[in-house]
Amino acid sequence: MKKKALFLDRDGIINVEKNYVYKIEDFEFMDGIFEILRFFQEKGYLLIIITNQAGIGRGYYTEEEFHILTAWMLKQFELQGIYITKVEFSPYHPEHGLGKYKLDSDCRKPNPGMILRSAKEFDVDLTESILIGDKDSDIEAGLRAGVNKNILISNGENISINERTANVIENNYVNLLSFIEKGIYEY
Ligand SMILES: O=P(O)(O)OC[C@@H](O)[C@H]1O[C@H](OP(=O)(O)O)[C@@H](O)[C@@H](O)[C@@H]1O
Ligand SMILES: [Mg+2]
Ligand SMILES: [Zn+2]
Questions:
Q1: 5, 32, 54, 169: which has the highest count of C-beta atoms within 10 A?
Q2: H helix or E strand, kind and range, residue 10
């Protein structure tokens, strides 16, 4: 039986966005993110992180440094009883990438490659899945991949891409959790 997944952006959703975070000491979990992930995990959603990491391609940090931070992040989640099925990342940038990283990759959001690849690997039903992102490029990737519900955690700007677009939620996870608990998203 196909599974449902919660696709999660990293910078700005899992952790506070501070422009190309790659050091453990700079990684600050967003308020409420553990509760949100536990809620969806208990509802049977696979948790899959999809993150643009052009800081690698730009030469700001290495893939090794990204993997070291990712291993630490996953350990913190495990300590909270949260199991992340996969972390998909795209190190490329079409203009600013250096050497092999200068590439217009289908896996860099807003392209849907990371979503489609992980959905295939884990037999995910995208029509039963959800995406949470902090930029319209995240939402666009979800829409292009056919993710059913794409939620934008915004800092209050009203960004709408089209009628199926994200529900713009104030940049406050408690709101999202309360929306969910009130059944607005009837998950
Ligand atoms: O998990 P995310 O939000 O996909 O990661 C975003 C960061 O990699 C990085 O993204 C953008 O950089 P590029 O335009 O891709 O070079 C910027 O928004 C940076 O501020 C983010 O840290
Ligand atoms: Mg982000
Ligand atoms: Zn993003």
A1: 5
A2: none
Q: Which residues are annotated as a binding site for substrate?
A: 9-11, 17-20, 51-54, 108-109, 135
Instruction: Take atom 15 of ligand 1 and give the residue whose Cα is closest.
Output: 54
* Digitized pLDDT (tens) for each residue of the chain, 187 residues in all: 899 999 999 998 899 889 999 999 999 998 778 888 998 999 899 999 999 999 999 999 999 999 999 999 999 999 999 999 999 999 999 999 999 999 999 999 999 999 999 999 999 999 999 998 888 899 899 999 999 888 877 654 333 333 334 444 544 555 566 655 555 444 4
Three-class SS of residue 52?
Answer: strand
Q: Which CATH number fits domain 1-122+145-150: 3.40.50.720, 3.40.50.1000, 3.30.1490.20, 3.40.50.1980?
A: 3.40.50.1000
Write b or e for each residue in 155-171: b if 16 or more Cβ atoms lie within 10 A of its Cβ, otherwise e.
eeeeeebeeebbebbeb
Active site residue 9: yes
Ligand nearest to the CA of 96: 1
List the structure tokens of 49.
């992180």
